[in-house]
Specification:
five-stranded parallel β-sheet, Rossmann fold, 5 helices, 43% helix, alpha/beta
């Protein structure tokens, strides 16, 4: 599974302020790229300096997902409109979906249905991808 596979990193961007999600994404990206994956994402730091239009957000999202091999949902336990549509798009286009559900409670049925694999942490996903 290692190699030049492209991973789209999905997570809520605005519910914790810009700093928290960027750290979450940066940590995941750094660790996955050390395994040889290429990580892709919707936003960069400059995007927080201006409002993106809906056309920019959705068009960029689907464009990036269309060239991805894997969708990793970094915070599947947190609801999010964009994330839900990304999961549906990935499923429809046969892109692997790996979700991280960090809560100890019951996994949401929609996440369970659409995910190829569900992990309790980034560490457990990393271990799985090393194989």
């Amino acid at each position: 599974m290692k190699g030049a596979q492209k991973i789209y990193l999905s997570h809520n961007m605005f519910n914790k302020g810009a700093d928290g999600p960027l750290k979450l994404r940066s940590n995941a990206s750094d660790r996955l790229e050390r395994l040889g994956f290429k990580c892709l994402w919707l936003y960069d730091k400059n995007d927080f300096k201006r409002d993106l239009t809906p056309d920019e957000i959705v068009g960029r999202c689907y464009g990036i997902l269309s060239v991805s091999d894997i969708l990793v949902v970094l915070d599947a336990e947190e609801p999010g409109w964009g994330k839900n549509f990304e999961i549906a798009y990935a499923s429809k286009h046969n892109i692997k979906i790996y979700s991280i559900w960090r809560n100890s409670g019951q996994i949401n049925q929609w996440i369970e249905y659409y995910s190829d694999e569900i992990f309790s942490s980034l560490d457990s996903l990393i271990e799985y991808l090393k194989v």
